[in-house]
């Protein structure tokens, strides 16, 4: 069974870049036809899909976050990373990684103004 674990700073200052890493165990991020996503939930709001990196390394982003988000991977560590630039307090949320039917537990990120 695949397990995912998010890691990264819990507090980021406005205008800086948020960087989170998802470490995957029990499955490979290069497994064919699987996609590895970042998703967030802001206070009082529903889940918002940010983007994914595919088994091939190709990426796709939500149009709403395309200019801010960047997802990359390190296949040697079986990790994929989210970078969100120029954050504002509106980017405060619990951030989740997802793939191969598994979810991380989520990590709270607060953006201070």
Task: Provide key terms for this protein.
113 residues, 54% strand, seven-stranded mixed β-sheet, single chain, mainly beta
Give a brief description:
The protein is mainly beta and 113 residues long. The protein has strands at residues 3-7, 11-13, 18-25, 35-41, 47-54, 59-61, 69-74, 79-84, 93-99, 102-103, 107-112. The chain starts with a strand and ends with a strand.
What does this 3D model show about the protein?
The protein has 113 residues and is mainly beta. Helices cover 0% and strands 54% of the residues. The protein is built from no helices and eleven strands. The strands form two sheets. Strands 2, 4, 5, 6, 9, 10 and 11 form a seven-stranded mixed beta sheet that branches. The protein is globular, with a radius of gyration of 13 Å. The model has no long low-confidence stretch (mean pLDDT 96).
Range of helix content: under 10%
Number of strands: 11
Using only CA atoms, what is the Rg? Answer: 13 Å
SSE order in H/E notation? EEEEEEEEEEE
Assembly type of the chains comes to: single chain
Please tell me the overall pLDDT.
96
Report the uncertain regions.
none
**Terminal residue distance:** 40 Å
Number of helices, counting only DSSP H or I runs of 4 residues or more: 0
What portion of residues belong to β-strands?
over 45%
């Amino acid at each position: 069974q695949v397990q995912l674990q998010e890691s990264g700073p819990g507090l980021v200052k406005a205008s800086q870049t948020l960087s989170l890493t998802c470490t995957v165990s029990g499955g490979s991020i290069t497994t064919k036809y699987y996609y590895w996503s970042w998703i967030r939930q802001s206070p009082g709001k529903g889940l918002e899909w940010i983007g994914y990196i595919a088994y091939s390394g190709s990426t796709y982003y939500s149009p709403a976050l395309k200019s801010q988000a960047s997802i990359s991977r390190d296949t040697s560590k079986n990790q994929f990373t989210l970078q969100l630039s120029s954050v504002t307090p509106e980017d405060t949320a619990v951030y989740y990684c997802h793939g191969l039917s598994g979810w991380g537990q989520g990590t709270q990120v607060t953006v201070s103004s």
